[in-house]
Amino acid sequence: MGTRKNPVCFGIHSVMSKLKNQHSVSTLYVSAASSSARLSALEQLAKEQNIEVIQCERNRLDELSENGVHQGVVAEYKPSSAKQNANIKKVIADIDTDNVLILILDHIQDPHNLGACLRVAECAGVDAVILPRHSACPINQTVIKVASGAVDSLNIVLVSNIVNTLEILKKNGFWVYGASDSGESELFETDFRGRSALVIGNEGLGMKRLVTDACDMLVRIPLFGETQSLNASVATGICLFEIRRKFTMIECSATKINS
C-alpha cells in the first residue's frame, strides 16, 4: 500500500466543508457498505468537481483516519495556506468595521478543545484567531473534524510570541480582555465595544503570567454551582457570544439614532 503524501480530513461535516469551499480535495474515500444519502451527496459533489472517488472497506477508512470517527468518509487534500498562517498586521489592516473581535488561545493542548474553540469562534463571527506556533496543539486531523469546517473559514494566525502579539493589537487600538477566575469585572457587566481581543488560557493552568499581565482587563464568568471551573471551549463560547451580543446592542442603538 502506497504512502499517503497529503493530509486528510474525515467526517461528513468536515469533508463537505472542504468540497464546498473548493479546498483542493484530490481523493474521496467512501464506505462501500453504506447506503447513506449524505454520503451519496458527498460522492456526487466530488464527481462534479472531477475528484477521484474510491469506495473501500471500513478498515481502510480506519487506517486513513488513524481510527478517528470518520462516519464512512475520508478526504485527502492538498494543504492550503490561504487563511491559515495569515499575518496579524494584514488582518488588522483589512478591518473595515467599528466593532472587531479577535480570539487568542493561549497554549490549548487538547485537540478536541481546540477544535471546539475554533468551531464556536467561527459561529460567533470572529475576525481572526491567534494561536501559538509552538508548545500548543497543532491543527491536526482531530481538530479539523471537531471544528466541523470552521478551519477553512477562519483567519488563523500562528505567532511565536503571544505577549508581543498582544502589544501589536494594543498599539492598533484593541482592548485586550483575559478570561480569568480572578477577573475584576464580571463578564455580563463588562462594556465590550470597538476593537476587542479575548484571551482564553490553557485548560489546566489558565493564561501564562506574562500573558495575564499584558491584558488590559480580566473578566470572569459567574458560576452558580459547586463546580468552579468550565471547559475551555465552553468558556470561549460564553465569552464570545456575550461580546457579540454587546456589539449587536451597540449597532442596534446606532441604527435607531440614525433612523
Can you describe this structure?
The chain has 259 residues and is an alpha/beta fold. The chain contains ten helices and eleven strands. It has helices at residues 12-20, 37-48, 58-64, 88-93, 111-123, 141-146, 150-153, 162-171, 209-214, 232-258, and strands at 8-10, 25-31, 52-56, 73-77, 100-105, 128-132, 156-159, 175-179, 185-186, 195-200, 217-220. A seven-stranded parallel sheet has the order 7-6-5-10-8-11-9, sandwiched between helices. A four-stranded mixed sheet has the order 1-4-2-3. Helix 2 (37-48) links the parallel strand 2 and strand 3. Helix 1 (12-20) runs parallel beside helix 2 and helix 5 (111-123) runs parallel beside helix 10. The radius of gyration is 20 Å and the shape is elongated.
